[in-house]
């Protein structure tokens, strides 16, 4: 049809509207397909669960893109000593992953880098005008010693980056002023690129905290199932499960400061959750030590029959909290969503008196943890 219109006789009026409609009808499905693929890719990247599972990969891609931008910019404008811009990108965001610590630590590292560049230029200025190399060495030693003194403790990143940047800019004090200025510019360029890419697809510490906490709660449910299973489980298997829970508890501790910053929850509220979980794991360890021996059929029968309701309630509570954290189903944290305790028809055997008492204490601890999670759900359920 298009060729027919193009080859129409000269002077004849050509109606182009059918051509445009035909071309648009061909382009629109292709354009829609490209948009659909792009939206699908964005959904894959923006999905919190996938970003949590592939956090290291996303961080590596973000840092690599930052380095690519640094190389392209410094090479494109032929900036001398452009490699220092790329080094600065790595220094500022190479070890920062979660959104909560990027905002503070990236600013700290950028501030320290600026301080070091300023001191380095002053050293070069002294060398250029006074020509006293020993004085340059003394200034560098005093400045780096001062930074090292403050590098241990609060503000350590600022002090450490200041000392490193002094040597980058000034060398041993004999660098030309032009080189020092260009290196300072490179550092500023690297800081700008690093801060720009640090906020690209940020990996929220809150997601890591939620999913890790859900994993710990599921681990508690599995460990308790090993304790009450009819088949006797060896002590080593239970001990290994408890060691894994303790290691996960330590990982949660490291995320708490950044979670508090991201969701504006006080550190005391997060500490209550952490404390309840720590007590619960400790009680599981004591219950594992107090479980009936392999030959105590009466006690093991009592655990399976008379404590079936208690066991079910604890399991449902733990799994409900884990699902609420992982999938955001806050309704699982409501009290009526937890199965009611079963009533023991017969009194516990003497050897299980302490076990039953600790079981009720364990239920109360996790129930308190559930209430703390429900009280802060509007903050962490992002």
Summarize this, please?
This protein has 382 residues and is mainly α. 77% of the residues lie in helices and 0% in strands.
Report on this model:
- The chain is mainly alpha-helical.
- It folds into two domains: 49-198; 205-380.
- The chain is 77% helix and 0% strand.
- The chain is built from 16 helices and no strands.
- The longest helix is centred in the N-terminal third of the chain and has 32 residues, at 99-130.
- The two termini are 54 Å apart.
- Residues 1-14 have low confidence and may be disordered.
Number of domain modules? 2
Q: What's the Cα radius of gyration?
A: 32 Å
Number of strand elements = 0
What distance separates the N and C termini? 54 Å
Shape: elongated
The overall average pLDDT, rounded, is: 77
Keywords:
mainly alpha; disordered N terminus; 382 residues
Topology:
Elements: H1 2-6, H2 17-46, H3 48-53, H4 55-76, H5 83-93, H6 99-130, H7 133-151, H8 156-170, H9 177-198, H10 205-228, H11 235-263, H12 267-290, H13 297-305, H14 308-327, H15 353-375, H16 377-380
Helix pairs in contact: 4-5, 4-9, 5-6, 5-9, 6-7, 6-8, 6-9, 7-8, 10-11, 10-12, 10-14, 11-12, 12-15, 14-15
């Amino acid at each position: 049809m298009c060729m027919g219109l193009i080859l129409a006789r000269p002077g004849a009026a050509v109606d182009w509207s059918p051509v445009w409609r035909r071309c648009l009808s061909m382009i629109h499905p292709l354009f829609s397909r490209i948009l659909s693929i792009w939206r699908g890719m964005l959904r894959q990247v923006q999905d919190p669960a996938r970003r949590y599972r592939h956090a290291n990969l996303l961080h590596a891609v973000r840092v690599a893109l930052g380095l690519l931008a640094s190389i392209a910019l410094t090479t494109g404008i032929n900036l001398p000593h452009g490699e220092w811009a790329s080094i600065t990108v790595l220094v500022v965001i190479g070890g920062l992953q979660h959104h909560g610590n990027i905002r503070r630590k990236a600013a700290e590292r950028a501030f320290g880098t600026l301080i070091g560049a300023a001191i380095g230029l002053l050293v070069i200025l002294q060398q250029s005008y006074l020509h006293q190399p020993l004085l340059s060495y003394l200034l560098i030693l005093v400045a780096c010693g001062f930074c090292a003194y403050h590098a241990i403790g609060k503000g350590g990143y600022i002090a450490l980056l200041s000392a490193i940047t002094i040597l980058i800019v000034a060398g041993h004090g004999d660098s030309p002023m032009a080189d020092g200025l260009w290196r300072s510019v490179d550092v500023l360029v690297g800081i700008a690129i690093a801060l720009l890419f640090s906020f690209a697809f940020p990996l929220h510490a809150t997601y890591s905290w939620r999913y890790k906490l859900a994993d710990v709660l599921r681990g508690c449910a599995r460990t308790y199932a090993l304790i009450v299973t009819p088949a006797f489980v060896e002590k080593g298997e239970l001990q290994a499960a408890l060691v894994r829970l303790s290691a996960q508890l330590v990982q949660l501790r490291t995320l708490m400061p950044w979670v508090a910053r991201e969701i504006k929850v006080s550190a005391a509220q997060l500490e209550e959750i952490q404390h309840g979980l720590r007590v619960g794991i400790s009680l599981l360890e004591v219950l594992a030590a107090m479980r009936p021996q392999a030959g105590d059929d009466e006690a093991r029968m009592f655990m399976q029959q008379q404590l079936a309701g208690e066991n079910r309630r604890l399991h449902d509570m733990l799994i409900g909290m884990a699902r609420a954290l992982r999938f955001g189903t806050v309704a699982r944290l409501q009290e009526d969503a937890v199965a009611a305790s079963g009533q023991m028809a017969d009194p516990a055997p003497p050897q299980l008196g302490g076990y039953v008492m600790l079981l009720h204490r364990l239920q109360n601890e996790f129930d308190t943890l559930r209430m703390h999670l429900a009280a802060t759900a509007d903050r962490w359920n992002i």
